[in-house]
Each structure stands twice: as C-alpha cells, then as structure tokens.
Amino acid sequence: MKRRGEAAGRSVRGGAPGLPVLAAVLVLTWSVASGCRAGRAAAPKRHVVEIEQFVYRPDTLRVGVGDTVAWLNRDVVPHTATDGAKAWDSGILGKDAEWRMVPTTPGVHHYLCALHPTMKAVLIVEE
Amino acid sequence: MNTRPRPAAYPTLFTLAALLAAGAACANNSDSAASAADEQQGQPASEVQPQAASAAAAPALDDADIAAIVVAANTIDIRYGEIARERATNAQVKEFAETMIRDHTAVNKSAAELVTRLGVTPRENDVSRSLEAQAAEMRETLKTKSGAEFDRAYIDNEVAYHRAVLQAIDETLIPNAKNAELKQTLVGVRPAIQAHLEHAELIQRSLTTGT
C-alpha cells in the first residue's frame, strides 16, 4: 500500500530496441556541442511530485528521458496521476502512497487525477 | 425534463450555512456570517433565506461541537452518495457518487483519528442535529426520483451542499476552532470541498447541455 507501481512505472512504452545506442551517442554529442547544458546528459535524476491539498506540486515538471518521477500522495483522500492520452496511469494512490515512473520517450504529458478531474498538471519529458 | 429551475426541496441545504452562521454569530458577536448562501450564480434559493433568521439563537460552537458537525457533514454526503450509487443512471454521476463516498469516508476516518488523539469527544448539538434532520428529508426526496430526473436532482443537491459546506468552513468552523490542529485539519479539508464543488458543477453543466 505504501509503495506501489515501481514496475508499473516502467510500463510507459519505450523507443525501438535498436535505437538506444545511437540515441545515446546523439545525446552525448549534442550535450557536448551545446556546451554543458547542465544535467541533461548526466546521471538520471529522481523527481518528486507531491500531491497535497488537491494540487500537484510542482504543477509543471521538466524531466529527462530515463529520470525517475515519483508521485507521492500527502492527502487523506485518494488520488491518481493519469496521463490524458492514457499512456500511463498510477492507479489509485491512498494516503502516503507513492508511484514511480521512468519516462523513456520525450513528450509533453497533460495529466490529471481520474477521481478529481479539476486537478491537472503537466509533465514535460526532454531528451 | 432537464429544465433549469431547482426543486423546492433544496432549501434545506441552504440552512446549513445559515445554522452554522448563526452559531458563529453567537460566538463571534457578529452577524456578517449569515450572508446569503445562494449568491453564487445560478443558485436560486432566495426564498429560503428567512430560515437563517430563525436559527439566530443557536449556541456558540466549541471544538467538540465542530467535530460533531464535521462528522455529520461528511456522513450526510456519504449517504447521499449511497443513494446515488443505487439510483443514478448517468456514468459521470455514478462515478462522482463513488468519489464522494470514498473521499468523505477518508475524511471522516482522519477526523476520527484526530479527535481521538486530541481527546476531543464530538458532541451532538443543535446544528449537527438540524443538519441530519434536513438531510433525512432530502434523502426521502431523492428516493422519490429516478433516471435523468434523479441524476439532475442529486447533482444539483451536491453543488448546493458543497457550496454551503464551503461557506460554513470559511465563515464558521475555521474561525471558531480553538485547537490549532483541528483548525489546520479544517483548512486542509477545504480544497477537497472546493474540488468536489467544481467537479459537481462540471457534471451539472454537462447534464444541462447533454454533452
């Protein structure tokens, strides 16, 4: 109950199997060429979105492909983090429950709480 | 069928804020809290305002009273939801009812844990008893309806109820709570009530436009 979804968090569909090496080379090259745009080519980071008082904090989050994003519900009532395009869904998160996801493709995800549709936020996944 | 006028049975909802405001008026020596519960757009209930004055003799509220009111207010909405679980036909309305049952049950559980920890025993009072009596009437009214008529009546009731609860939290419960943790809990519950209200209004509009 406390922690769910580490496995489910990886359920986001990734890129084609043959491409990672090429992608890594491109990312590395781009990163060096762009002169140290801090962090993107560095080790994956962990980000936390806290759900508290019916708000996702932060309500807009930029992460890199391969980073871990965790949603942590601080409210006494259950919530979800559900992608508007149905690419991923935390399922119901009870009080103090956490769900993690590792995005594998870049994109902009407008997500919401499936139980409380007025709760909305954005996850931006960058290469 | 989906016409706009609200059934006359809704007056009971608006006395929630009025009753609580009257209690606060006594406690705070101020009558400003008894302002109209229906001033939000689209909620014609002005005909019930005289009931606000009739509750003016309500006693002041202490933390034990407030705890009982919180439990009563949550329980009332759970029971409305249980009726909707059985009678609603619209999928959005059914899902909303499940959310209300789930959320208000969770809030009541949390409130029970808090008052136990604080050593506060919820004490029934005129306000909590009146709320329950009025809710009982509303439940009977809802049980006479079915199909789209029920969906509309339930959602209209939910909009009005959450609006009244929100007003009561802001104008009476939070200002009168003495214990800091109880006060903070009320502050923490407010966004839930606001979100429920906005959600109910979304569905209300959807039922009106048929989308």
Secondary-structure arrangement, i.e. CATH architecture of chain B: Up-down Bundle
Strand percentage of chain A: 25-35%
Going across the major beta sheet of chain A, what is the strand order?
2-1-4-6
Name the biggest interface. A-B, 13 and 16 residues
- Going by CATH, the architecture of chain A would be Sandwich
First-residue to last-residue Cα separation of chain B: 16 Å
| Helix segment tally of chain A | 2
How much helical structure, as a percent, in the residues of chain B?
A: over 70%
Helix content of chain A: 10-25%
- Give the domain tally of chain B: 1
Structural class of chain B: mainly alpha
Class based on secondary structure composition and strand pairing of chain A:
alpha/beta
Overall average residue pLDDT of chain A = 80
Q: Return Rg of chain A in Å.
A: 15 Å
Q: Based on CA inertia axes, which overall geometry of chain B fits?
A: elongated
CATH topology of chain A: Immunoglobulin-like
> Uncertain segments of chain A of ≥5 residues (pLDDT<50)?
1-9, 11-17, 25-39
- Identify the CATH class of chain A: Mainly Beta
In quaternary terms, these chains amount to heterodimer
